[in-house]
Amino acid sequence: MRKIRWGLLGSGVILDRWMKGALQQDDMEIAAISSRTHARAEAMARKWNIDKVLTYEEMIRRKDIDVVYIPVPHDAHRDLAIAAMNAGKSVLVEKPAAVSAEEFAQMTECARANGVFLMEAVWTYFFPATDFIRQCVGDGTIGDVRAMNVSFSFRIPDDYQGRLIRPENAGGGLLDVGVYDLHLAQIIFGRDPVSIMGSAAVDTDDLHLQVDEQAAIIAQYDRGELAVMTCGIRTDMFDTARIYGTKGHLTIPRFWSPDTVIVTRGNERETFSFPVEQKVSGLADEGFQYEIRHVNDCIRAGMTQSPVVSWEKTVSVLSQCDTLRQSWGLA
User: For the chain, which ranges sit under pLDDT 70?
Assistant: First the structure.
């Protein structure tokens, strides 16, 4: 079986973690890396034993690369992805896939025109624990799901100067971590909400940030179900999800990369563990291997989109983000 050849079109901070998952796979190889700064790409190449260091343009022109991974700031996703796809390369682009649903529509149009694969990198969908969650929701283990409560928020340092506080880089909590809340709601309810609303704090602390510092969101579904979600970059919160049904509930610590699910029914409580498989000694992958394996399988099957993280799901989440950001005066 021919190995899938990957190019790294960017060297963002998530790349170190992602590489630990890639190296668990024996059906792929990392052919080259690029970055906005040559020195950063060189350092990553030395660290991960990658042979070629290229510019973005050189990477895109390479004929022997099947797929590129794009871990760069949100506002650069669309243009890099479209350039790569126009050169015949498949694309795995970090979440959010684009800054808006309109941008992502341009990306899917390009993928169709070139017959290449495109997927938003929402790794949560591919964990074994997530499969178990779907099973519990689908088979009535906790009855009919009526509500969901989830938070994903952290506090950046007061001296932070990175992309998360820059409006021009689509900073703020919603597009960085709030999308995980919205994707979990997609996993649990399997459809779009009939309404979504929220309140965001903008320019309310001493840093005078012009991005959403923290936000509270409520989505309602067609049978009255509610998803209550919080996200942010200036407040630490427990990143735990709770799914409430008519017969019990699920508790999911660190829901965005889950390895534990607690099932409670009446007075009965049972904990299920799903540790991430580690094939390479001394290299601890958090679970990126599942997402990467899925992309390799899709490319081998000649698919243009994932049946798990479909374009429709990405559009749904980005459309909800558009609605919220517009109501907050951020889009």
Answer: none
